[in-house]
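hey so u asked for the seq, here:
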Amino acid sequence: MRIAVVTDIHGNRHALFAVLADLRRVGADQVVFGGDAALFGSRPRECWERVLDLGWRLVQGNTDRYIATLGPGLAAVGKPARRPTDFRATNVAWAAERLGPALVREMGAMPRQASIPSPAGTLLVVHGSPGDDETGWSRDDDEQTVAKVIGPTEATAVVSGHTHTAMIRHAGDVLAVNCGAVGRSHDGQPGLATYAVLDDSGGRWSAELRRVDYDHQGAYAEVQALGVPLSEDFANTLLTGVAPS
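ran it, structure tokens below
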């Protein structure tokens, strides 16, 4: 069984479409979306609608939760996009307006994790870590740190996103995989959309990180042209592959 896990699209249609083309070559048996579909990108509606149309299994990310919980309230108070001091509220309002109420409700209905049984043991997909969509692990973390973040689990493999840095670790008896990010990589490799493919065919889970070229210059230009309310360093992540300060 081959399971692809795709996370952190962040409204970047250029990166998403490149990954979809690669997925057709990979031929996964199942695709799980690991959260963060829309916020901070130029095409929130297009990306989220595409994920829903594909019928992937869904896991809610922290920015999906922001949109689902903050979006309706922000819309009710007028024009929060004019409050530049609240970066998150400004961007949530911008994305929620483009998504519309029905798609925001779909975002709020996502579960917080997905569990996939296998003879190789359970594969658990979360956004950050089990029980916490704001805390994840990254490629700079050692095995002991990753094991502490994951905590006690009956899963054999735990897959996440959130930190936008791709890695594979053996944390004790657990295979820990961070998918990186499709739409906003922080691995210092601009123009590469990253996701993971897991395979249980050998009687144990193995993982591959796949990096797919996409038009990051076009993604940056679209953010500018459509007026996404990002700071300069946040927008420049698309060009540098470096996390904003």
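The chain is about 35% helix and 20% strand. Helices lie at 13-26, 44-54, 62-76, 87-99, 101-108, 143-150, 216-225, 232-240.
lmk if thats what u needed
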